[in-house]
Every structure is written in C-alpha cells, then in structure tokens.
Amino acid sequence: xxxxxxxxxTARIECVNPVKNKWRIRWDYQQREDGTTDFMEAEFRHKxxxxxxxxxxxxxxxxxxxxxxxxxxxxxxxxxxxxxxxQLNYKAAFDLAVQTNGASLPVTIKLxxxxxxxxxxxxxxxxxxxxxxxxxxxxxxTIADGWKLKDAFKMEDYAV
Length: 160
What we know:
Layout: E1 2-6, E2 13-17, E3 22-31, E4 37-44, H1 50-71, E5 73-75, E6 78-80, H2 84-99, E7 107-112, E8 117-122, H3 125-152
Antiparallel strand pairs: 1-4, 2-3, 3-4, 5-6, 7-8
Helix pairs in contact: 1-3, 2-3
C-alpha cells in the first residue's frame, strides 16, 4: 500500500489486470492546494471482499491516527514524542504534581528530537498543567478526527 497521485475521479475499486486478476482499492483522497489529488492505494491478487476492504482501510485509519498522536504534537514550537510510555510518564508526573500542590516540581520533559533536543523544565504547576492539558487535548482531537474519517468511509463505494 502506498500514496499515489491521481485524478479525484479515480475509481475506488478497479480491476487493473483481468488476466492476472489484479485489483486496486483506493481511499483517503486528499485535494492539495496546487489542485492535484493523492490517495492511498493497495493492490490485491484477487477481487477483494467487502470485509477485506473494510479491514484494510479501517486498520490504515487506526494506524494513521496512532502515527499522528505519536509524532504530530508540538509544544512551544518543539515536537513532542507522545509514545504510550511518554503519555504514562507525563500523566504520573502531572498527577503527582497536582497531588503535592507542585512540591514534586521541577519536572523536565524532553521536547524536539535526538538531533535537536529541547529540555523544558516545568517549575510551576500551572505551566505543567498547560503542557499536559495541551497534550491531552491534542490526543483527544486526533482520535475524534480519526473517528470522523472512519465514519465517513462508505463501503458502498467498493461494491462491484
């Protein structure tokens, strides 16, 4: 599966080689600012069933949502790696800071990446709350966006 450029009217499902029984399905059509369209495409060596199409596309949306959560959040201009482990660490540190009314601070969070790390020291509970709330809001919005994309996916477009 890969992203390709094409026409916005390119068929959602198509037999591209009847002799070899090759089929392609396409989803996640994106109209770009320059007027071009791209979309995801996967090839099958058989006519895919509706269940195969659904499973592939829904899993792709789930994986894309996870990818966006993992590497799409920025705070104070720096990327924040929101792995499951980091999310748990941030929650534990924030919960402790709240429970101790800030006595457990300062807390240092590594922002950026390994090539350009930014070590942000949170000394005030409100500053840490701003960071933690922004991360949670980003995660929740990204999940909601993923749900919308999956809900908008129309299986009837793949009936042949």
